[in-house]
Amino acid sequence: MEAKNINVTICVAKYDELDENDRSLVDMAVEATERSYAPYSMFNVGAAVRLDNGVTIPGCNQENAAFGVTICAERSALFAAGAQYPHAKVEAIAIAARNADGLLDEPISPCGTCRQAMVETEKRSGMKMHILLYGRKYIYVIDGIAGLLPLTFCDEQL
Predict the structure, then answer these.
(1) CA torsion sign, 145 to 151 to 153 to 154?
(2) Is there a contact between 151 and 109 (Cβ–Cβ < 8 Å)?
(3) Which terminus of the chain is more solvent-facing, meaning fewer CB atoms within 10 Å of its CB: N or C?
C-alpha cells in the first residue's frame, strides 16, 4: 500500500489585511447572517458571492421543520446568482456564521453538500473561486474549492 499526501494551502488573514473588495464581500456575508431563518439550530449562516460582472449577491440559511427542505447560505447565494445571472462567473464567495453568543470567533467551513455545489460552480465557469471563511479572530482565504475538497467528484467520473 502506498500513502499519498494531499496538500492544500489556506492563508490566514486579519480583516484589515483583506483588500476592499474582499472586505465588502465579508461584510455582506456577515450582514446576511441577520436575515437567516434558523429557529431549530439557532445557527445563522450568511454568504455572499461576487460575480465577474461586478454584482454581489447575498444568501442565508433557511431552515424548515422538514429538514430536507432546508437550504444552506452558500447554496442560497450560489443558486440565486445562477438564476439571476446564468452567464456570469462566480469570482468569490464569503461565508460567516453566528450563534446565540454572536459572530463566531473562528471561521466555519461549508458542509459537504455546499462544497459539491461549489465544485459544480467552478466547473461551469472554468475558473477557481476565491473563498473567504470569516471568523472574528481571523479569516481563511482559499484559492479554489480544491482547498476545501481536494478529492472532488465531477462529471468526468460519470
Answers:
(1) positive
(2) no
(3) N
Strands 56-60, 102-103: parallel, antiparallel or unpaired by DSSP? unpaired
- Nearest one of 94, 104, 90 to 58, comparing CA atoms: 94
Task: Answer yes or no: 91 catalytic.
Answer: no
| Whether 46 contacts 34, CB under 8 Å | yes
* Residues of the chain with confidence (pLDDT) below 70: 156-158
**Which of 74, 91, 122, 156 is an active site residue?**
74
CB 57 within 8 A of CB 77: yes
pTM comes to 0.94
Neighbours of 137 (CB within 10 A): 11
How far is 26 from 100, CA to CA, in rounded Å? 20
